[in-house]
Amino acid sequence: MARKPPTTPRKNASQERSRATVDALVEATARILVKEGFEKASTNHIAEIAGVSVGSLYQYFPSKEALVAAVIERHNEEIMNVVRAAFAEVADLPIEKAVRRLVTVAIEAHHIDPNLHRVLAEQIPRSGHLAEVEAYSHEIHALVRTYLERHRKEMRKLDPALAAFMCVSTIEAIAHNTVLNGEMLSEKMVKVLVDETTRLVVGYLK
Amino acid sequence: MARKPPTTPRKNASQERSRATVDALVEATARILVKEGFEKASTNHIAEIAGVSVGSLYQYFPSKEALVAAVIERHNEEIMNVVRAAFAEVADLPIEKAVRRLVTVAIEAHHIDPNLHRVLAEQIPRSGHLAEVEAYSHEIHALVRTYLERHRKEMRKLDPALAAFMCVSTIEAIAHNTVLNGEMLSEKMVKVLVDETTRLVVGYLK
Amino acid sequence: MARKPPTTPRKNASQERSRATVDALVEATARILVKEGFEKASTNHIAEIAGVSVGSLYQYFPSKEALVAAVIERHNEEIMNVVRAAFAEVADLPIEKAVRRLVTVAIEAHHIDPNLHRVLAEQIPRSGHLAEVEAYSHEIHALVRTYLERHRKEMRKLDPALAAFMCVSTIEAIAHNTVLNGEMLSEKMVKVLVDETTRLVVGYLK
Amino acid sequence: MARKPPTTPRKNASQERSRATVDALVEATARILVKEGFEKASTNHIAEIAGVSVGSLYQYFPSKEALVAAVIERHNEEIMNVVRAAFAEVADLPIEKAVRRLVTVAIEAHHIDPNLHRVLAEQIPRSGHLAEVEAYSHEIHALVRTYLERHRKEMRKLDPALAAFMCVSTIEAIAHNTVLNGEMLSEKMVKVLVDETTRLVVGYLK
DNA sequence: AATGAATGAGCCTTCATTCAT
DNA sequence: CATGAATGAAGGCTCATTCAT
Predict the structure, then answer these.
(1) B36, B152, C131, D32: which could join B40 in a potential S-S bond, CB 3.0 to 4.6 Å?
(2) CATH architecture under which domain A71-205 falls
(3) How does pLDDT run across B104-120, given as a tens digit for each residue?
(4) Phi (first) and psi of residue B145, to 5 degrees
């Protein structure tokens, strides 16, 4: 172990192939979900679109549900990366600036793949993935709460958990509805919405 | 009941029976959706629970989708009745009082049949009835907007459509999340949430 | 209810149809088992041979296993009818005569549908039908034991359960092997086998 | 082991490895058949348990059936070794002693691996290996017949083939049923059964 | 030779819908 | 109009076997 040859740790070919297959499957599932809807997302069809056999699908995913879960996971992870970064970036900013930034990020995050976002929002509750999804929800609540506690002095007296609930619900709803209403996606409109939401939230906290 | 006039213009028997059958079917669908989940809501099962034959089901509903649509319709109509009444009741109240009342009603409305509400929220998008549901959404926006325009003088200058969007999104989200979080349904907690939401919205409008 | 019309209690048509469908399915299963083997007995194929849709198959049998069970049941019942009748007929005969008759019947019973018998003998253990099959086995043991106890005086002293075990094992094995060896099925040969088996068993009991 | 000659003519390494692989595969198949049942005996699973890749499995066995055949072969060979030895040992003993010994051996042989025995008894017919198994059956019949012919003088007049058929059927059935009935496996019970079966057979032959 | 990813025919089962009675 | 038996397309999944590495 210690004398491992200095050669590049080249992952063996098969590992790469596996990875490619898995990716193709998740990607195919997402594409079908978006373009054809949940009903059309049969395992056979997914495999076909992924350019893979059904057998291979089941080599990597124990069930159809697992595939959907992977899509959800991937999407949520993408969003959470943006969100986590935003909170890091905002940690020391005063409320007004922080909220403005977070609202912007929320809307942007919902933009990442709006159609997929919509489909997942609809399908998630069905599959038993509530737990995982709620984990993300909890994480967000925690991030908000932490921020609020750090900036307690800038705000009126307020239960942090409650305040977090109010803020998250509000910001998320507006971001969500904004994305759902294709009409509101003009750059100008987004700017207005960010302003308004910031006002709404900051007004509430102060 | 006893003094019912003996000459009731009883709609011909078959018409009454039809009505009863339709009701039984819609009711059975709703019950199954709530108690057994969407997966178990097969037409055969629905017919069975409704105490009717599958054939009869298809006599009254051209497809399974039509049945689900009817359930959605019924549920939304129930909610909208409450909501419309609330707006009528609130039309002349000052903002603070009106908002408080509307928030309360929103949470109550989400309570009407929380499980059904949840299931429908999940299934609606899938069943292509978004359009109809959006009609209700539009109606609500219109009601809010109308109220806001009537009370323009009590508020800062604000685009009514925009304000309506903000208010509806916010109130609905909080009501929705409140119901989803079984934990928040204590009477005391609801009171707090009403207070907070009112403050949030009123603060924004003023 | 009391004044039920005197008309013949004609089973309604659908009941007859159901019965016909069920019969066709069981028969088709048996035929396939015999002619094509267990592997080929897929539900779709069974339905096809029965001239019925798969859907109908599942209307009457909850699973493939249930169908096989029905075939087994039917076959066993056929055999047991013969066997029960034989025991009734033989109850008061002296050992020698009784054994001769029972051996004859055993071989005849294995003849009822030799190919099916063979296939089932092979398949039965697989499916969890051991219980039911063992019930028949128990019944036979009980019948033998009862006979032996009634005729105790004609025999040497012997534990009835043990004697029943020996007799049943022996007679059944010979009947079974006789049927499996197509060669032994000449009328003459059967006669010899009956003689020999009777001698074997009676010699043991006396 | 220690004094093994240093110049062991070790078969070239690959040959030894082959042998080991083949053994591992047959062993794995047997184990799975016994512990997990026929349904679970997929080639992939067998390979896995054998610690070998599926590819290798197909290097040594052209099909799954071939593997099962090998297991059957191995088991039967094991049993036949015992049986052949018994016949050799018994060749010159008088009927009574011989039969007693053979019955004992038959029960013992069925004990060698009762679970495997049971599974194979179920699966053999399905896997088209009846022919090979029947070869063993023939061998046993021949052994019995040979013994009987050598001891003709101790017996009444009797067709040797017929007598062999009767004896083999009887002894085998009792041994088989004894093993199937776990309850009968007490040492005491086995003793009784050997006594009884011996009496049954000897009584028949004399 | 060994590996194990890939294949795909085919199995069991469900369910929306139709239609003879 | 009601009934419910019948339909059959389609779905999820398994597994013996192949083949590129």
Answers:
(1) B36
(2) Orthogonal Bundle (1.10)
(3) 999 998 888 878 887 88
(4) -60, -45
Calculate the dihedral angle through the C-alpha atoms of B113, B117, B118, B120, rounding to the nearest 10 degrees: 140
**CATH code at B68-205:** 1.10.357.10
CA D70, D72, D75, D78 torsion-angle sign: negative
Q: Domain C70-205, what fold?
A: Tetracycline Repressor; domain 2 (1.10.357)
Q: What is the pLDDT at residue A1?
A: 38
Does the nearest atom of strand E lie within 7 Å of B58's Cβ?
Answer: yes
Inter-chain contact C169–D170, Cβ cutoff 8 Å?
A: yes
Query: Quick check: A60 CB within 7 A of strand F?
Result: no
Touching pair A, C by Cβ (3+ pairs < 8 Å): no
Report the percentage of chain A scoring pLDDT > 90.
69
DSSP D105-152: HHHHHHHSSHHHHHHHHHHGGGGT-HHHHHHHHHHHHHHHHHHHHHTG
CATH superfamily of domain region D14-61: Homeodomain-like (1.10.10.60)
Residue B7 pLDDT exceeds 70? no
Give the homologous superfamily in CATH for domain C13-61.
Homeodomain-like (1.10.10.60)
**Cβ within 8 Å of C, D 152-181:** 162, 165-166, 169-170, 172-174, 177
| CB B87, CB B109: distance < 8 Å | no
Distance C48 CA to E15 C1' (A): 19
- Cα B85–B87–B88 angle (5° rounding)? 65
Instruction: Write the residue in C37, C196, C204 that is nearest to D162 by C-beta.
Output: C196
pLDDT tens figures, B81-98: 999 999 999 999 999 999
Which nucleotide in the DNA or RNA is closest to residue B48, CA to C1'? F4
| C204 → closest Cβ in D125, D166, D200 | D200
Residue ranges in chain C modelled with pLDDT below 50: 1-11
Per-residue model confidence as pLDDT tens digits over C3-56: 444 444 444 556 677 888 999 999 999 999 999 988 899 999 999 999 999 999
Sign of CA dihedral D189, D191, D195, D200: positive
Superfamily of domain B12-61: Homeodomain-like (1.10.10.60)
With distances taken from each CA to the C1' atom of nucleotide F2, the closest residue turns out to be B56
- pLDDT average, residue stretch B30-42: 90
Query: What residue type is assigned to position B89 of the chain?
Result: E
pLDDT tens by residue, A7-38: 444 445 567 778 889 999 999 999 999 999 88
Q: How far is the CA of A73 from the C1' of E5 (A)?
A: 25
Q: Are D116 and D140 in contact (CB under 8 A)?
A: no
List, in sequence order, the alpha helices (H) in A51-180. 54-60, 64-90, 95-111, 114-123, 130-150, 160-180
pLDDT of residue D12: 60
Q: Which residue is nearest to nucleotide E15 (CA to C1')?
A: B42
Same fold, A12-61 and A71-205: no
CB B163 within 8 A of CB B201: no
Burial of B5 (0-12, 13-18, 19+ CB in 10 A): exposed
Report the length, in residues, of chain D: 206
Q: How far is CA C155 from CA A66, B92, C160, C205, in A?
A: 70, 108, 11, 6
Best of B116, B138, B156, B166 to disrupt the A interface by mutation (most A CBs within 10 Å)?
B166
Judge: A172–B173 Cβ closer than 8 Å, yes or no: yes
Q: Which residues, numbered 53 to 112 in chain B, qualify as contacts with chain A under a Cβ-Cβ cut-off of 8 Å?
A: none
